[in-house]
Amino acid sequence: MGVWKREITIVLLSLFAIVIVGFLTGALLPLLMAATLIFLFRQLQQISRFERWISRGGKVDYPKTKGIWEDIYYHVYRLRKAEKRRKKKLRKLLEQFRDFTGALPDAAVILGEDDVIEWANKAALKVLGLQPADKGQRIPNLIRYPEFIRYLKLQDYQEAIMLPSPVNNQITLEVRIVNYGSGLRLLLAQDVTQVKKMERMRKDFVANVSHELRTPLTVLKGYLETLQDMDDGGSALLTGSLEQMRGQTERMQHLVDDLLMLTRLETQQRRTVCVDVPALLKQICNERGVVENLAGRIELSLASDANIHGDEQELRSAFTNLVGNALKYSPADSVVKVRWFEDGGTVVLEVQDRGVGIAPEDIPRVTERFYRAESNHARKTPGTGLGLAIVKHVLMRHDARLHIISELGKGSCFSCHFPLHRLCD
């Protein structure tokens, strides 16, 4: 600011001197015009020197000058020095990033516009079969799996997809894409071969154990029923013991049946037919009302006559679990509302109760296997902890999603949203 004051002071003093001389000589206007021309000429000289210095990148020391132009040169020179330091720092960070991503065991590929490869780490060269010369190529031309190409086109990257490695089809890759920057995406591919192998072993183990348990459970249940028929009621201890044994055997039978159902959902191919959902819901609600001996507890509302493509037995199992849970976890005198309706781009099954509700921290986990919310009512209510896991798997196989709204002490609302492309006549 001091330089500007000095420059203005010099200009004003010069102008004052020219005015005095002009009045004394009678040539004020010519003197003012001459002074203006000289001032403009000097400024044009400074601008020309500045432009030549900038055109060379401002890399050399700035020309020696005085006044405000010296300050301009100095500030631009400082900005250039600061920019150079920032570039050096960014270059170092970029090198560190490349070293870091190069050491990652997972493949990383940066994709630009039109799915063009901008950069790839060493792991990508190993598991995706990319080469350094592939930079600038479109990745769909190099990885030609239809599922991967569809994943790129849909641009819905919320879920990862599983692909065999283009280099070795014995390797299973989990591929995920993350949007970042302007038009840039990061493709990550992780080798999950061992994880998938362990998951298959777990499924096989559960299926085999569950299947093997069915025969001894059937035998035990048969003998218990025979013993109960023979019991004359003379011993309260014997009668009570047989009843407890029967209850635990039935509980074990339900657990085995649910495990086998989950195994079938995970392993069997889908059998798709046009399912009459309104008729199915009427049947389920009537059956549940008879079982509970409280037919009036279920209020069924069919606001849509939509049918969907799917597996009727799987849908029956999912809907039965939802209605059964609502009855089980709500007071005996409360009403459970079951609605089938269309909502925007989906068709929805909604099951609403006025029961104990679910704590907010439990909602994300209630669809996990064997997970049961930590409440007194949940601990006292019999169940296997697999019902909502079955619901989740059935909905996944029908391209649907489960939405849960619940509040402790006020009840819960479970809604299954089926996409419109699942509708059938």
What does this structure look like?
The protein is α+β, with helices and mostly antiparallel strands. It has 4 domains: 92 residues; 87 residues, Beta-Lactamase (2-Layer Sandwich); 72 residues, Helix Hairpins, CATH 1.10.287.130; 156 residues, Histidine kinase-like ATPase, C-terminal domain (Heat Shock Protein 90), CATH 3.30.565.10. It is 52% helix and 18% strand. It contains 11 helices and 13 strands. The strands form 3 sheets. Strands 2-1-5-4-3 form a 5-stranded antiparallel beta sheet, sandwiched between helices. It has a 5-stranded mixed beta sheet with strand order 7-9-10-12-11. The chain has a 3-stranded antiparallel beta sheet with strand order 6-8-13. A hairpin with a 2-residue loop joins β9 and β10. The longest helix has 38 residues. It starts with a helix and ends with a strand. The model has no long low-confidence stretch (mean pLDDT 79).
SSE string: HHHEEHHEEEHHEHEEHEEHHEEE
CATH class of the largest domain: Alpha Beta
- Beta-strand fraction estimate: 15-25%
- Give the termini separation: 80 Å
Q: Describe the biggest sheet? A: 5 strands, antiparallel
The total of helices stands at 11
Q: How many distinct folded domains? A: 4
What class, by secondary structure content? alpha+beta
The geometry reads as elongated
What is the CA-based Rg, rounded? 39 Å
In total, how many beta strands? 13
CATH third-level topology of the largest domain: Heat Shock Protein 90
Q: What order do the strands of the largest sheet run in, or round the barrel if closed?
A: 2-1-5-4-3
* Percentage of residues in helical conformation: 40-55%
